[in-house]
């Protein structure tokens, strides 16, 4: 079955870096765009970044632009989020999610989500 | 960026009730809207996409309507399993904005 499993979360000091990973299985990974979405404790969902199926395009939320980098390795069915210059406000559960089925419009919702990995930014 | 505003923020209801949650976009998003359900400690689950299309496996008591800037999620005959937080999300633009969420509580 389609599965996404995040890893790499933990406690990191402000200003340092952390890399999150998402392992995909059960579908043809290189056919789908992938997202990172986060949720701060007790708060709502915040979209972080998207990468197209072939890695050709990437978009970021304003709060992480210039600090976070989304990437993927289609040969390994892996999605990554490189988090640099982290701040206390980056503390959250980070989810990876896949695009829904092909749509000729090129617009996709998120149809499968992982269970998340927790990042805590603290000194 | 497109802003998404949900109302109400909290909704108290009883099993068997019909409930409606509203989502408004700050500009037209056509029908590029999804609804998600999230239970405590769990990942979100998509219920509705393209404003009105029911995701496979989702009970038919969930329905979506609207286009442009005004959208609704309706749950007919509320079940105990439906008490959760619901989010709308636009995917018209590459900012993929979520609404702030509506917590559906047991009355």
Give structural attributes:
heterodimer; A: 123 residues; mainly beta; 7-stranded mixed beta sheet; 4-stranded antiparallel beta sheet; 0% helix; 50% strand; globular; B: 107 residues; 6-stranded mixed beta sheet
Concise overview:
Chain A has 123 residues and is mainly β. Helix content of chain A is 0%, strand content 50%.
List the helices and strands and how they pair.
The complex is a heterodimer of chains A (123) and B (107).
Chain A: E1 3-7, E2 10-12, E3 18-25, E4 34-39, E5 45-51, E6 58-60, E7 68-73, E8 78-83, E9 92-99, E10 110-113, E11 117-121
Parallel strand pairs in A: 2-11
Antiparallel strand pairs in A: 1-3, 3-8, 4-5, 4-9, 5-6, 7-8, 9-10, 9-11
Chain B: E1 4-7, E2 10-13, E3 19-25, E4 33-38, E5 45-49, E6 53-54, E7 62-67, E8 70-75, E9 85-90, E10 102-106
Instruction: Give the N-terminus to C-terminus distance of chain A in angstroms.
Output: 40 Å
Overall mean pLDDT of chain B: 97
How many individual helices of chain B? 0
Helicity range of the residues of chain B? under 10%
How much of the polypeptide of chain A forms β-strand, as a percent range?
over 45%
Strand order of the largest sheet of chain B: 2-10-9-4-5-6
What is the quaternary state of this protein? heterodimer
Spell out the helices and strands of chain A N to C.
Answer: EEEEEEEEEEE
What distance separates the N and C termini of chain B? 36 Å
Q: What's the helical proportion of residues of chain A? A: under 10%
* Helix/strand/pairing category of chain A: mainly beta
Rg of chain B, Cα atoms, Å: 13 Å
Q: What series of H and E elements makes up the topology of chain B?
A: EEEEEEEEEE
Largest interface: A-B, 22 and 25 residues
Q: What's the Cα radius of gyration of chain A?
A: 14 Å
Q: Helices and strands of chain B: which structural class?
A: mainly beta
Unreliable stretches of chain A: none
What spatial form of chain B do the alpha-carbon principal axes imply?
Answer: globular
Counting DSSP H or I runs of 4 or more residues, the number of helices of chain A is 0
State the shape of chain A: globular
């Amino acid at each position: 079955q389609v599965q996404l499993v995040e890893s790499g979360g933990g406690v990191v000091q402000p200003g340092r870096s952390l890399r999150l990973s998402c392992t995909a299985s059960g579908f043809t990974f290189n056919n789908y765009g992938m997202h990172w979405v986060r949720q701060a404790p007790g708060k709502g969902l915040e979209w972080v970044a998207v990468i197209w199926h072939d890695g050709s395009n990437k978009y970021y939320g304003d709060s992480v632009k210039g600090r976070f980098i989304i990437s993927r390795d289609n040969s390994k069915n892996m999605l990554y989020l490189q988090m640099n210059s982290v701040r206390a406000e980056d503390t959250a559960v980070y989810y990876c999610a896949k695009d829904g089925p092909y749509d000729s419009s090129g617009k996709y919702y998120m149809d499968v989500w992982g269970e998340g990995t927790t990042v805590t930014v603290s000194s | 960026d497109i802003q998404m505003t949900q109302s109400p923020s909290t909704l108290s209801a009883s099993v068997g009730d019909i409930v409606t949650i509203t989502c408004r976009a700050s500009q037209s998003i056509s029908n590029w809207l999804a609804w998600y359900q999230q239970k405590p400690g769990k990942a979100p689950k998509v219920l509705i996409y393209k404003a009105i299309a029911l995701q496979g496996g989702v009970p038919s008591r969930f329905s979506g309507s609207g286009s442009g800037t005004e959208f609704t999620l309706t749950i007919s005959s509320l079940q105990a399993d439906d008490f959760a937080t619901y989010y709308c999300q636009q995917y018209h633009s590459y900012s993929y904005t979520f609404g702030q969420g509506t917590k559906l509580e047991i009355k």
